[in-house]
Amino acid sequence: MSVFLPRAGRIAIVGTSLVQQNHIGDHSFIGTSARGWMSWAEVLSHGRLACPVHHDPAIVPGWEPSNRAGGSRFFAGLNFGVSGQKAIEIERRLPRLLASDFDLIIVDAGTNDMMVETRQTIADTRDRIVKALLNAGKTVILLPILARGTQKWPAGGPERAKAHWINQHSRDFAARHANCHVFDWNDAWVDPESRFGEPRDGYSNDGTHFSVRGGFAVGSLLAGYLDHILPNAPDRVLSQDDCYDAADNPLGNLASELSASTSSEAGETSHRLGGELSHPGAGVWIEAICDMEVPSHGGIVGVSLRLRDAAEEGLESIALAPFRSEDGSPFPFPSQSWRGTLRTPPLKLKPGNKVPELHLDVILNTQAEPLRLDVAKIEVRPVPSPVRA
């Protein structure tokens, strides 16, 4: 088998809720989630990495979240995560997955098996999943079993020992197979001072899944890791005269303003970006993208780019949609500075002539200091339909 460089813009991810939760949606919106490690890897790579998805309310047997019949993930694309699934259920979904167009895939499997299957059964199923993907010509990034808090895996319990054995098995497996690699998300996740290998404080909302800060930490590590595997992508270069024109430049920028400075006070603030957007017509798919630099600030609980179809029953598409607790309060963002590129999933414009809108939504704690953000390279563009024929 030959070794090749996969496309940076077609990264697939498959697994459990740890994968599915990178994206979120319902009947009215689609978004990348601020708790998502792949979401943050895309942002912190400055748009170089992409795991494209689009709104899709279809109900697909075998793909229902948490095995609840009749449920939808509300998105399709290259996120193949389904919450609640065991490794064997992930393996059964491979034929549908392999009908999609991608070169590289990140694999999570086995975390939901730990309390009911033997270590060998879990390792064998993981091996079969990876071999099927390798045999299909894909580059595979294998994720170890993610450590859990003691409220989920008791201290000193068999799950922790099994996880260490499986993870060593995965490293040995990858060393023997071309185009197979291991990315250890535990490096960013586990508290090295913890006797039982628990997640770092504030990285998880429940001892199993990611909070925003946990997703940021793993996404930052993943962006750097993939930088050594994927080819360089060209920088985004914007020209002020690259404007949408239905006849001569139908893929031109719909935004009339390419940069903005915003100032937000405590609470929730929405800033209109891009000036007055052009309308490319009903049925056209569009997406938004911008660069920003966020300073060190302890009070941020949300920074989202939101593209809105203003037509009746129009959808919203959000980059870094806030992750909220059961009482509705959002989980905090990283307090350190960061810079990156926010890109919304594409949305299909509904019938009507109301121009789409672009917003930067900022949420600060009630006692937070004001936050100034500079937004650059604002684009809202028509894109090819992401729906496979």
TrEMBL record:
Its domain of life? Bacteria
Q: Please state every residue range assigned to the domain named SGNH hydrolase-type esterase.
A: 78-214
Drop me one GO molecular function for this one. Answer: hydrolase activity
InterPro entries from the UniProt entry = Ester_Hydrolysis_Enzymes, SGNH_hydro, SGNH_hydro_sf
Q: Which Pfam families match?
A: Lipase_GDSL_2
Source taxonomy: Bacteria, Pseudomonadati, Pseudomonadota, Alphaproteobacteria, Hyphomicrobiales
Do the record's keywords include Coiled coil? no
Name by which UniProt lists this protein: SGNH/GDSL hydrolase family protein
Q: Which UniProt keywords apply?
A: Hydrolase
EC number of the protein: 3.1.-.-
Q: Tell me what organism the protein belongs to.
A: Neorhizobium phenanthreniclasticum
